[in-house]
Amino acid sequence: MTVEPWASQRLDGKLAVITGAGSGIGREVALFFAAAGAQVVASDIDGNAARETAALVGAAGHVVPADVSDRLSIERLADAAEAIAPIALWVNVAGVGAAASLCDVTPDLYDRVTRINMDGVFWGCAAAARRMIPRKGGAIINISSNAADQPIPTLSVYAMTKAAVNMLTRSLAAELGPHGIRVNGVAPGFTLTGMTAPDRLTDEERAALIARNAARSPLGAVGEPCDIAQAVLYLASDAGRFVTGQTLRVNGGVAMP
Ligand code: NAP
């Protein structure tokens, strides 16, 4: 056996760029990666939130604010990260939810969700790959969603972007594998973050939300950011060295496509 259990989930000496790292799943991925030995570039549209994440990470934390709906902002993020160290890992986490019935979807809402959730992932992959290809190695992880597997009324635009991310992951795995770059995804089910359970909810509303979503899972549970971060760490590390083109469903069994 050449891959040591546990040791294989270390990321020592690697620099990771994480978008959407200012809160929720992105922040947790940053903390997991740093605990595994990586240097972490915490990026978010909200610079203060990214700074808080970097402060939690400690000495291995760096901050580069970026707006993933802007391709040039992503390029500046990649350049700033490379000035610290070669980018070995890139995790596209930034995303926004949007619930609206088809006939209520405005052009503004459509543009915002597709530019952040889909275009942002595409150009993030491109920025990472352009820098990883000459070094013949790296790993990219795209955060998808259960919504790509399970049609939910009012989530058409969101689901469409996440389904596109799943196909992008597979396409790029085929294209970048010969360059030593693995591309995978993680599709969370309902996970407790500011996106799903904002602070403004009362205790009763929060409990009802959790109960409603837990009831959809054979495990009778909802996810926490650590559940998603653990899967991302596996895919980023040598433990996942033979895995590419996959989107790992971390959803409590709510969807089993
Ligand atoms: P979150 O706590 O809202 O985190 C998303 C982060 O992305 C926020 O810090 C947000 O900043 C940032 N962001 C928004 N627009 C951005 C932009 N244009 N450029 C850069 N950063 C931007 O939500 P989360 O639940 O952790 O979601 C993370 C990812 O998981 C998303 O892709 C989401 O679709 C996916 N996901 C979540 C769940 C779930 O149940 N939580 C389930 C399936 C998939 P602001 O707060 O300032 O907007």
UniProtKB/TrEMBL annotation:
Organism classification:
Bacteria, Pseudomonadati, Pseudomonadota, Alphaproteobacteria, Sphingomonadales
The record ties this protein, via Pfam families, to: adh_short_C2
Q: Which UniProt keywords apply?
A: Oxidoreductase
Q: What is this protein called?
A: 3-oxoacyl-ACP reductase
Under NCBIfam families, the record lists: PRK07231.1
Q: Which reaction does it catalyse?
A: 2,5-dichlorocyclohexa-2,5-dien-1,4-diol + NAD(+) = 2,5-dichlorohydroquinone + NADH + H(+)
Q: Which family does it belong to?
A: Belongs to the short-chain dehydrogenases/reductases (SDR) family.
Xref: CDD domains: SDR_c (cd05233)
Q: Spell out the molecular function terms from Gene Ontology.
A: oxidoreductase activity, acting on the CH-OH group of donors, NAD or NADP as acceptor
